Amino acid sequence: MPKFTDREPLVKTLNKYVRIVRTEHCFLLFEELGKSEKWTQCLEVFRWMQKQRWYIADNGVYSKLISVMGKKGQTRMAMWLFSEMRNSGCRPDTSVYNSLITAHLHSKDKAKALAKALGYFGKMKSMERCKPNIVTYNILLRAFAQAGNVEQVNDLFKDLEESIVSPDIYTFNGVMDAYGKNGMIREMESVLSQMKSNQCKPDIITFNLLIDSYGKRQEFEKMEQVFKSLLRSKEKPTLPTFNSMIINYGKARLRERAEHTFKRLTDMKYTPNFITYESLIMMYGFCDSVSSSRDVFDGLMRSGKEIRVSTLNAMLDVYCMNGLPEEADRLFERVRGFGVVPDATTYKLLYKAYTKANKKELVEKLLRHMDRDGIVPNKRFFLETLEVSGSSSTDGADSTSDKAGLKRTELSVKA
């Protein structure tokens, strides 16, 4: 497979290798382009394919493109491809409808998307070649669980039981994970019981999502019971198992339990990853032990390991949440010399902390850095920062509900 670069137009490169490029290569291109912001180039590749003598209209190609457009929020383009497919003589199948449903579920208007998804689901049941399969049910069940629509989830489970399709581990894990992330513990446990009654054994994903869900709700007795069950099972804990326990103990200010979990991790011969260290840094921050957070961060700096921007953000966040904006500023200046490039989250959390502490000189200094780096804060950046700052003044000093997971802020880059 030839290498494609940005040095010349994609179609020109395809023409250069026209004798060897085939459908499977284009699939790989769709995959890679879909991961970036170059989704429009997928359409260029598609148009190029259609001009080749070897091209035959194929459901698989359309299904893949619809999926890519959906992930990029391009629902109209996904619909256009669906129409294009039918006009080309292809008859939709289950896979195409699954991609179309997923595309709609990526749109911002969730209520409308769920209604559309159910409409397609009903249509699929009426067509022999498009009968819903387990993938269809899994997509819909997870979507409605994420929306907190318990009644619709139950209806879909009932429909699944009456069909010839059998639920699999992904069915139950997807719904439990969605319920767990919504804090709907009772509903999550109901699905777990359903899973057991279907003789479906939990896998490591099941254990991890249960541990994380109970931990986030600070139901530590249940979390620890699940962990013990995991140790007794054929499954083995993974780093996410320990990372989740460390950060959730930290949010509850249970430092000793978090440290014991980390010790257990190392005793079991696991090698901590960068998320483990970030969890430790945040844990100590929640427990008002800034010096311990700094020790972990400095240890990483001395180790010679690559410092990720997310790790930097964790340490900066610890300084900010503990009312130490000057320390955050000093660290921000220091790490820039080590080649760590700040991202949107870095600027957002520093701007929020500096404005909250009324440190005008630090705000001005930060804005100069942003200007030098070609970063222009858009309207959403300031609105979100003001919103967070306004709410934090009334939430009280002990509010730790969202300190660990700052959303990425949209920043526009100067041309």
UniProtKB/TrEMBL annotation:
Alphabetized UniProt keyword annotations: Repeat
Comp. bias (Basic and acidic residues): 400-415
Highest rank taxon of the organism: Eukaryota
PROSITE patterns from the UniProt entry: PPR
InterPro entries on file: PPR5-like (IPR044179), PPR_rpt (IPR002885), TPR-like_helical_dom_sf (IPR011990)
Molecular function as annotated in GO: mRNA binding
Signal peptide: none
Segments annotated as PPR repeats: 58-92, 133-167, 168-202, 203-237, 308-342, 343-377
Pfam families linked: PPR_2 (PF13041), PPR_3 (PF13812)
Membrane-traversing stretches: none
Listed Low complexity bias regions: 390-399
Record SUPFAM superfamilies: TPR-like
Stated family: Belongs to the PPR family. P subfamily.
Name this polypeptide is given: Pentatricopeptide repeat-containing protein At4g39620, chloroplastic
Region spans: Disordered: 390-415
